[in-house]
Amino acid sequence: MQAKAPTYDDKLIQHYVPTFVMLPLGVVTAENVFENKDKLEKQLKELKAAAGIDGVMVDVWWGIIEAKGPKQYDWSGYRELFLLLKELDLKIQAIMSFHQCGGNVGDNVFIPLPPWVLKVGETNPDIFYTNRGGVRNKEYLSLGVDHMPLFAGRTPVQIYGDYMKSFRESMADLFKSGLIIDIEVGLGPAGELRYPSYPETQGWVFPGIGEFQCYDKYLAADFKAAAVKAGHPEWELPDDAGEYNNTPDQTAFFRSNDGTYLAEKGKFFLTWYSTKLLLHGDDIIDEANKAFLGCKVKLAAKVSGIHWWYTDPSHAAELTAGYYNLPDRDGYRPVARMLSRHYGVLNFTCLEMRNSEQSADAKSAPQELVQMVLSDGWKEGIEVAGENALARYDANGYNQILLNARPNGVRPAKEGEKKLRMYGVTILRLTDDLMISNNFDVFKKFVRKIHADQEYCGEVSKYGHEIGALKRSKPKVRLEELLVEATKPSVAFPWDGETDMPVA
Question: Which top-level enzyme class is recorded in the Swiss-Prot or TrEMBL entry (predicted)?
Fold first, then answer.
């Protein structure tokens, strides 16, 4: 007997938010082997049948695929995984992971950059991000070498572009079948568009302000050239911004009222530092656009939820990470505007966090930060998506995600009100803990609620998520537009106090 097709409430289905689960970091091992297939298949079948998830997100590690040498790609482990996902009818969000796995919060697997890339760093360590003390970070190549042909005659931007083209060619049938719907482009440590300003491997502990990461010879020379061009050859990179675990007022740079960040030279540095990051993201996403042109996919970039010191005037932790965000300057809307030229999705973290859960000494405000960044994306006319920063299995965490996914709930819109809905939510991550009976029961309720009390819906047209062929990126956004118009502060969209579809 054929199963009865699900029926949907025409009003509620419009509020359906597709939900994905992030696969384990080492689902394909560092040796390029798809291990534990039987266990994963069992878990995914349960997630699909019992919870009704829409798909999965998976890191596709550069350090695995191109490990043997330049342009020697081996997609075999991932192809085996993807064919299983096709059998299970689970859509794929694929992360082009150009960073090291290991060294960030929650990492339990180590996958370094390709050996031939690290070998270049043995004789030229300035290819890596560097702090003021000269300590190198091997998680991701410094954006200072983005256009330097130091790697067997290729630049990093060319390398990333070639990698993405090879991925498209190797998975052409899976793109054609509609299995791969999202390409998240890794743009920094943890895959996020930021500098590695708070590395646990170098001793950073929450809520330290972090350190600027621009002291490699390439970025140092770039800053010096910019300062000379601006008529200030005497300006140097900051030497008063403290160390990883300082508070803002322990430094001259971030100090209240008279910190260097408020002076002309501080503003010049922060503009340079954040603009370099923006242009880095723009260049690589442009390569992704060329690689996946014509595919029925969305491109996405992840922005980190740096919520600590958000209520301090200096926003110090955001500044060291490259987000030049202050009470009188919007540091996230330029990112959204840059993404808009590529028809990109802005993926943001820390959706599960509430202010009341944070320690007072961190001056943390994740709720306001999420509200600001998502609003910036919507104001720029792009889709926004998100994920939790830390593993949570409780109703409070899920309810906060539900609120952020639908800030105005499913109630009828008020006159003149813009109904807000995230494009998708990804839950971090598939583990044995998630599948424990109590945790899984709460998760099933969460998926039902984020689906607006509807059953799993594979007909994306019912909730307006048809994906057309990717078009060529629009012309570059003028720097003046990014640095002046897009940075003007504006009021975030209003959020309800609580979700109107709570888990419990």
Answer: hydrolase
Statement: residue 148 has pLDDT above 70: yes
15 is in an annotated binding site: no
pLDDT at residue 107, as a whole number: 60
The tens digit of pLDDT for each residue in 347-374 reads 999 999 999 999 999 999 999 999 999 9
Angle made by CA atoms 13, 435, 19, in degrees to the nearest 5:
25
Q: 104: pLDDT confidence band, cut at 50, 70 and 90?
A: low
- Locus of tokens 């390409």: 183
Contact 55, 20 (CB under 8 A): yes
462 is in an annotated binding site: no
Is 107 annotated as contributing to ligand binding?
yes
Total structural domains within the chain: 1
Q: What's the domain range around 64?
A: 12-203+279-485
- Residue 388 is labelled as binding a ligand: yes
Contact 474, 270 (CB under 8 A): no
Taking the C-alpha atoms of residue 201 and residue 320, their distance in angstroms, rounded to an integer, is: 17
CATH of the domain at 326: 3.20.20.80
Task: Specify whether the CB–CB gap between 128 and 138 falls below 8 A.
Answer: yes
Residues assigned a catalytic role: 192, 387
Asked whether residue 6 is domain-assigned, the answer is: no
374, part of any domain: yes
The tens digit of pLDDT for each residue in 436-446 reads: 999 999 999 99
Residue 381 lies in a domain: yes
- C-alpha 21/C-alpha 40 separation (Å) is 12
- The answer to the question of residue 449 being in a domain is yes
Q: Is 350 left (phi over 0), alpha (psi -120 to 50) or beta?
A: left
Plot region of 422 (φ>0 → left; ψ -120 to 50 → alpha; else → beta): beta
Three-class SS of residue 164? Answer: helix
